[in-house]
Amino acid sequence: MVNVPILHDSAGEVSQTEVKDWSKGECEPIPGKTMHDMVIVDRDYTKIYDKFISLGPNVRNGLAAHGNGYQCADFYEKMLDDKDHLQVVDGKVYPSLCEDEEAANAVLYLSSLTNGELSHRAYQNAEKRTGLKLADISEGAKDVRINYKDLQAKIHRYNQSPVWSGLMNDDRAYSAFTYNVERLVPWRTLTGRQHFYLDHEGYIKFGEHLPTYKPSPRPEAYGELRKSVATGRAKVLNVLTPHGKWHIHSTYGDTLRMLTLSRGMEPCWLSVEDAAELGIQDNDWVEVFNDNGVYSTRACVSARIPKGVCFVYHAVERTYSTPKSQIRGGKRSGMNNSFTRVHLKPNLMVGGYGQFTYHFNYWGPVGVNRDTHVLVQKMEKVEF
Amino acid sequence: MDIRSQISMVFHLDKCIGCHTCSIACKNIWTDRKGAEYMWWNNVETKPGTGYPSKWEDQDTYKGGWEKKGNSISLKGAGKFKGMKSLFHNSNMPVIDDYYEPWTYKYENLFEAKEGDDQPIARPVSLITGEYITPKSGPNWDDDLAGSEDYAKNDVNFKNLSPAEQEAMFQLERMTLHYLPRMCNHCLNPACVAACPSGAIYKRGEDGVVLINQKKCRAWRMCVTACPYKKSYYNWNTGKSEKCVLCYPRLEAGQAPACHHSCVGRIRYIGVMLYDADKIEAAAASNDEDLVQNQLDIYVDPNDPRVIAAAKENGIHDSTIECAQKSPVYKFVKEWGLALPLHPEFRTLPNLFYVPPLLPTMAFVNEEGTYETTSENFWGAIEKSRLPMGYMASLFSAGNEETIKTVLKKLMAVRLHRREETVGDLPKEEAMGAMKDAVMDKEMADAIFRLTSLPLFDQRFVIPPAHREEAMEMLESTADVKGNSGFGFKEPPVRGL
């Protein structure tokens, strides 16, 4: 049995108009309505790998994203005609995902962005849902099929799809929400419009029903510096973990080119004033730590950084250049996720309420890019 | 009139986002070899900053380029007497630490480390000695004002700025930076060619590309000193000097150099410029304040029938003349007067021109300490620029601030005109007035806008056919060069007679 949050694009997303806690007996516990869902999943743990390398038959039921679905059973059947790219599991035949190119081609074949017929079907479905005329958008691209070899040979402009909100006819550059503005397709919100005001008990109680200024909680409120004790000259700084320039999260972060063009590792950027106060020179080794964890790195002192703040661009890999932490008794230091942790904000757990319903990577607890505080001090001894 | 053809470049700095894709394209193709690890024929610097190699612009230290001697010029750091003096120790060369000690990581340790209490780690090791190191500098060490106290504040271009002006450049609410992509300028008056005692460096007749003959180079490294841009590098493995070849194998196939082709911001333009070689010496010996104008006067109008006739007489092919007429570089440099050479005071007459950045000059902080965003003042005034004019003049006009102001006024006029056209929230008179000030009509403003913001590949890169069938090398016997393998061979120096 798998516990599942009430999900966006499910019937449950309009189930909770008021805040009631079933665990306190305030309402009946009804899975998927007043509490999270519970789903029975059959899983043969001896067959995980087989599932990993083959495309299962549920694709026959169609695919959907962002509330826009399309039927693709016929294309799944056609994949089974390609005898060179199949897997046989327990006597049953499936499209193969074993080789990287097979996996890439399966995605390209079944995506509305690279299969024009599927894009057309998705717009036809959107017509049914909205009562608007929309399928003309994809009319001209019905025969487009882009596979991996095509992409290797040359760049291709992908199809439009109602999964995304930009219109791209006549070589137009993608721009979000042009689909909603120009074709009058409602936004996927409770009102069907973009709106600032949130008429929800939970948001009103937290004063978040309108986007207004609220000061950040003080460092003590987070309780991340209760046990940390500096062993040298140290200072509490607000640590920011923005997107880096030399990697996409951790991807490419460990390539020699990117490392050579930056500082060989992801440094901790310090203001000139704070560095002077702490006796830290540019490129000195420093420890950035709090109760959550520690990152040992080198300092990058810059006039670009305001006093009281430091930066560590995310996401660091602790496979290269990371020394052992002095403050943690010689254990290998961590990375930027070591000194941050999730700060659960209650109104992010309001669910079953239209666009505020959980969806993986879209709506849920957010990163703590600006709300963590650390101590920074110079490392006296550097060991690997 | 001695008309010749030169492949020239324009980099539009307002469009450069400092992504270094150009550097990586170049590195992967040309300098991913032993002895070349530290070389970045193309690199991108943050300005203010000291760049790569550190403080390369400081010719008091490096003695690069030419200096004016009466009505002529002489090399600052080379020549017969200077050469003899520094025969056994040339102290005016950057050493490896001025570039950086290239490094890699002991990646294999991640797999081969003995079982222990802690996760294994790939430590940095020097690519020269193989020893463990902590990197102390790199080809882009001062990126985005990193280590600003040690690097940006020592920018050589601060020399003529007042202490107050310098201080203001590092106030949090006032500071700005821009990127400066750099490569070999394939100069009209190349100091590297002049300084080479072996005659190994030459400027190719058909397109002006400057090359080092790897067979002739004898490792004097005078070119390393002489090039004021520090774009000639010594390969410690082959014992030869190397430099940007402008991807001539690509050029000859009608393709843009890899750094141009890969440019994400599409800041790069390449095209033919016809020039009058008779004017080179006089231009190179101009007074500082006239250097830019006199260099620009060397380039001639490719539509002028006298120029065309003289070009044909010199054997310049019709297709090259046609490309010169369509050259985006000619438009930016000559027709519109928007692009300037980098450090013209080095007197090498570089063929890479920069459209100076306008964006850092706009958006200023008002007396309340907040950014001015009202529509009346949003466009700011060039005089209130966050980058002092003296700083940009040091980079692009040998200190002549009027030259910079003229260009920025033009750039501003184009913006005001386009704002008026597309948004319409400015008084028409303001846009018209700005264009009038900048000596520009609507047609020119629109043409500048199109080639700046909307150009397609073929408009940015107008490359003539190579006509290798007419090149000097084709007259040689191919048998003579059989067995040569280009870069990568090692030829030990032969001692004695």
Task: Write structural notes for this entry.
The complex is a heterodimer of chains A (384) and B (497). Chain A is an alpha+beta fold and 384 residues long. Chain A folds into 2 domains: 142 residues, no CATH class; 160 residues, Beta Barrel (Barwin-like endoglucanases), CATH 2.40.40.20. Helices cover 20% and strands 15% of the residues of chain A. In chain A, the strands form 5 sheets. Chain A has a 6-stranded mixed barrel. A two-stranded antiparallel ribbon of chain A has the order 1-2. The model of chain A has no long low-confidence stretch (mean pLDDT 93). Chain B folds into 2 domains: 244 residues, Alpha-Beta Plaits, CATH 3.30.70; 196 residues, 2-Layer Sandwich (Alpha-Beta Plaits). Chain B is built from 20 helices and 14 strands. In chain B, the strands form 6 sheets. Chain B has a 4-stranded mixed beta sheet with strand order 12-1-14-13. In chain B, strands 2-7 form a two-stranded antiparallel sheet. The two termini of chain B are 44 Å apart. The chains are: A alpha+beta (384), B alpha+beta (497). At the A-B interface, α10, β10 and β13 of A face α1 and β5 of B.
Cα-based radius of gyration of chain A, to the nearest Å: 26 Å
Q: Helical amount among residues of chain B, as a percent range?
A: 25-40%
How much of the sequence lies in strands of chain B comes to: 5-15%
**Within the largest sheet of chain A, what's the order of strands?**
7-11-8-10-9-14
Most extensive chain-chain interface:
A-B, 33 and 38 residues
Order of helices and strands of chain A: EEHEEHEEHHHHHHHEHEHEEEEEE
The overall pLDDT average of chain B reads 90
